[in-house]
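JOB MANIFEST
job_type = single_chain_structure
chain_count = 1
residues = 166
[input]
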Amino acid sequence: MADDKSKIDIHRPLKDAFGRFSTGIAIASCWNGEGDPVAITINSFASVSLAPPLLLWCLEKKASTFEKFMTAPRYGISILTAEQEDISNRFAGFEPTPLQAEEMLNTKDGPPLLKTCLAAFDCTIVDRHEAGDHFILIGKVNDFRSHGGAPLTYFASQYGVGNVVE
């Protein structure tokens, strides 16, 4: 038990320093092998390229959803609104309650996406890179949508609200 605590203590200052960068919050989602939706809260989302349209996010190796995302050919990203702190908390937990049909946008053959969000991206995975205790998942954007509103933000381990954009 002491070893676990010392690892936490060793990493806390670095996590605190990383936390000084304000980020938005998103939900990454995919279908598992049985056709059920899988989702996880992320704040490591970034645009990579406009031509071709690429984005990335990072997945921790010990996440309960790790194997599902590592075998899925596609994923979705839903950028959360200021009113969706509960969804962020729900999918930040280990093995959360799955997305329900009424929460998801009906997509033809794409990944599950949230009905309510600031922006949503349907992506095909083009590359995965191992990076320390995470994998970087790079996806080609097949389709997207965006709406006005205020984003849910995260800074120094606290939620906040960004500026409203129409």
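[summary]
The chain has a mean pLDDT of 90.
The two ends are 50 Å apart (CA to CA).
exit_status = 0
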